[in-house]
Design a protein that fits this description.
This protein has four helices and three strands; from the N terminus they run ααααβββ. It has 102 residues and is of the alpha+beta class.
């Protein structure tokens, strides 16, 4: 724990409570892109299109997202990021599935 908090459970409780209060009172805008992008139909239209065209369209439509183009069969991390869109393409450079958020 950061100073001035000690090692006892009451100081831990105090530290947690004060940080929860700070977090709940923060006036930062919380964006939840998953809500915006959870439906598939907008992305389904990109299946079969050229990967570069799909990337440009997604970056223009969703400028706050990281858009990644990934060749089909490539290894990817299993972490889930609500600000990432992955687009898988084949050897011919065509989108092979609906892009997904995460």
């Amino acid at each position: 724990l950061p100073p001035p908090y000690g090692l006892g459970s009451s100081t831990l409780l105090s530290w947690i409570t004060s940080n929860l209060d700070k977090d709940s009172s923060a006036e930062e805008e919380v964006r939840n892109p998953v809500v915006v992008l959870e439906s598939g139909p907008p992305f389904n239209s990109l299946i079969g299109s050229r990967i570069d065209d799909a990337i440009v369209k997604l970056e223009d439509t969703f400028p706050d997202y990281v858009v990644q183009k990934i060749q089909e069969g490539s290894m990817v991390t299993m972490d889930y990021r609500v600000d990432r869109i992955r687009v898988f393409y084949d050897e011919g450079g065509m989108v092979v599935g609906a892009p997904n958020v995460g």
